[in-house]
Fold:
Amino acid sequence: MSRPLVILALGLTPLAAPAGELSVGFAEVDVTPELGKKPVYLAGFGQDRKAKSVHDPITARAVVLADGDARIALVSVDVVGLFLPTVERVRAELPGFKYVLVSATHNHEGPDTLGLWGPSPFQSGIDPDYLTKLVAGCVKAVKDADAARKPAVARIGTAAAPELLNDNRLPVVKHDELVAIRFADPKTGDPLGVLVQWNCHPEALDSKNTAVTADFVHYTVKHLRASQKCPVAYFTGTVGGLMTTLGLSVTDAAGAELKDGTFEKAERYGALVGQLADKALSAAVPVTLTPFEVRTRAVLVPVGNPLYRLGWQVGTLDRPLYEWGGKPTPEQFVGTKDVAKPVAVKSEVGYLKLGELDVAVIPGEIYPELVLGKVPDPAEAGADFPDAPVEPAVYAQFKGKHRMLIGLGNDELGYFVPKRQWDDKPPFCYGRKKAQYGEENSVGPQTAGIICGTFKELVMGNR
Structure:
């Protein structure tokens, strides 16, 4: 599941500082909401799902990388998503950093941080005090990670596990590549931390759970802390399409099937992802992560989803709107509150070149087809826009030796659906009697083209 929209950065921002010694620091801060004083609405499924207990903490995990004096902060929080204005609040408290990325794991069992899962469709589920706590936690995690920085060398590994993903929307296309980076002391070899990126919705607990939890991510991090003997930061990548554990066959050590909506399945799945990361790290190779180059661009994305427009009208979606004149990068971003006219949200696309590692920073839940270059051609019969051009695939743009994608990076715009797979009107693709899930939680059919086109331009170096 997913939702929403916006951005921050401008133009291209290459880091000019010469390459220096790589250093890295890890830190985490508990940002679990307090229960009892006021309702905590759990995000990701239906409205009015109030938390009754806390099973495990909601955590902000930060990694700070430095190339000499140039510092980059990468933050991941166990929540469903964060809008760009929230990210900007974090950035405002961290002067001196060349780049601050704040992402969400897209956890469906944590507090509402977008406003879509309150007591009713017309009431926000956000607690402003909690959002302030979350922002402060992200800032503290970055500052603590920066203070913990030590000289480092890095190794990177990948491993594929299609059996750990269920794609519940046709066509079946899985982004099944896990990426893991291990940092170590260059003199002693002692571990300093592990960064792991995987592509799956944290929603193993399903829609009836009422306990605050980080879902399987808690168990993946727990496993890797023990196996790698160091701090761990988990980042979510490609989750659109829909990459999920729901409906996925997961068995315990004795071979018994584990049910959706149980902590047993969440724990087992999290451990399996941790084991996959162990496998990737066992075959890891040295990687140079300096010098740093950062390119970002602010873009407008038109809001075509009528439910989202209604959300702005009634106040469940609280973020600025802008006039939409047909250009993603107008000369001026003009704010508006008139949803009777074409409107857009402002978001951000990012490209990081960290030495030999290329990183795409995508502000939402991108479909694997758009990452891997597997958009159907020709379009499936029944598609709403069968003649739409195929969007440039994210990974096809990379020129580096290694690659990674961070989803829900600095914003949450919902699903990025390939336009020629957009299927909101009958007749439906694959002979279905009703539409597949996805479009209802997308900003609109133009989104994928804007995001992927902007990313291509960033990699090419075009303003």
